[in-house]
Specification:
It is a single chain. The N terminus is likely disordered. Among the domains are: 50 residues; 140 residues, no CATH class. The protein contains 13 helices and no strands. It is 77% helix and 0% strand. It has 367 residues and is mostly helical. It is flat and about 80 Å long.
Length: 367
């Protein structure tokens, strides 16, 4: 059987192309190891054809998607992502400080011209960068600055024309971020858009109930339902072009959901439940422990590493918060931290046992 044609155009987006390159690179490394060679002995002809195909395939992926084909390249790419994000945040701060410093010296027509032109110019720059580069570092940078300028400009226009701000601004900002995310395949922009749209939904409901819409964070229970909805969206809505988007949906939803439960467990007075505050807090602490455990199990079964990590983090937070409420006031400090340390050791042993059972089931080896 002849190897696949390396010149065939890869399917999917940058994320799927990078995953394909990682699999090929790992396979090449494994095939040259002595342990694998002792089990799987390729003939020189097979080895040569595989090396030829893998080099051509990696070269094709690098040419079409500019993916990382080695471990050092991946480290450099991480540095570039961090630098582009920090650069975007710095540029956002520069835009805000520029408006703050010089805005009062400008006439109203000039202000409006700047307000209208700034997002459009940045959008044009984003489109230009997206057409020129495949790794999208500059695209992400410019898109984030464009979103920041759009968020800043709506209140400015409202001040110029004396327009009362409403929760619809959150809808406009969220829609703008989502358009940028899907147009250019930007996961950071997708996360921002989801947060803004969930905030709009909570603010709109608060306004409909007669509360000031800026106080939408006072009712965290809104975000429980919104988090569940966002978490379920990838199951209904396929992303063939942006294969890296479903994990972002799930991670943003999980963070929103568990942060809402944590806030209710600490400040139960903000809940809709008609109970005593202490009972509400105890209830949500138990709910947090139970659902974080269930989320860990779901993540393990579905091989969702981000969900497992998030759920495990909140499980520990809920557990230690509960222990704090139980023992901090009456237990000596040294004894409290000793007990916390002992609980940590017990958790490590328990997780190790669970991991050992998973290995036994998956690989059928003696425990």
């Amino acid at each position: 059987m002849s190897p696949p044609n390396p010149n065939q155009a890869p399917q999917g987006d940058l994320a799927s192309a990078q995953q394909a390159a990682d699999r090929i690179r790992l396979l090449r490394d494994e095939l040259v190891s002595e342990e694998v060679q002792s089990v799987l002995a390729l003939t020189p002809d097979q080895q040569g054809r595989f090396e030829e195909w893998s080099r051509a395939k990696l070269a094709s992926l690098a040419q079409q998607f500019d993916v990382d084909t080695s471990a050092p390249q991946k480290l450099v790419s991480w540095g570039m992502r961090i630098a582009s994000t920090l650069g975007a945040l710095a540029l956002c701060a520069a835009v805000v400080l520029f408006f703050t410093r010089y805005w009062g010296y400008l006439d109203t027509p000039v202000q409006l011209a700047i307000v209208i032109a700034t997002p459009l110019v940045l959008l044009a720059g984003t489109e230009f960068a997206a057409r020129r580069e495949r790794t999208k570092y500059f695209t992400s940078l410019l898109a984030l600055v464009a979103l920041a300028s759009f968020i800043l400009n709506l209140p400015v226009v409202g001040d110029v024309f004396n327009i009362t701000s409403t929760e619809r601004a959150l809808l406009a900002w969220g829609a703008f971020a989502m358009v940028l995310a899907y147009r250019y395949g930007l996961r950071l922009m997708l996360a921002a858009g989801l947060i803004l749209l969930m905030s709009y939904a909570a603010a709109a409901y608060a306004a409909q109930m007669g509360y000031p819409w800026p106080n939408f964070l006072d009712r965290p229970e809104h975000f429980l339902l919104l988090g569940l909805l966002v978490f379920a969206l990838p199951s209904w809505w396929a992303h063939p072009r942006n294969t890296g988007f479903p994990p972002v949906y799930r991670l943003v939803a999980a963070l929103t959901f568990f942060i809402a439960i944590l806030s209710l467990a600490e400040w139960g007075a903000t809940s809709y439940l008609p109970w005593e505050t202490n009972n509400i807090e105890r209830f949500y602490e138990i709910v947090g422990l139970t659902l974080s455990t269930a989320a860990m199990w779901w993540g393990v079964v579905r091989h969702q590493d981000g969900i497992v990590t998030t759920a495990a983090t909140f499980f520990i937070i809920f557990l230690f918060t509960r222990l704090y409420h139980w023992w901090w006031d009456w237990m000596p400090r040294y004894l409290f931290f000793a007990v916390i340390g002992a609980v940590g050791v017990v958790l490590v042993v328990a997780f190790k046992r669970v991991r050992g059972r998973m290995i036994h089931v998956e690989h059928k080896v003696p425990a």
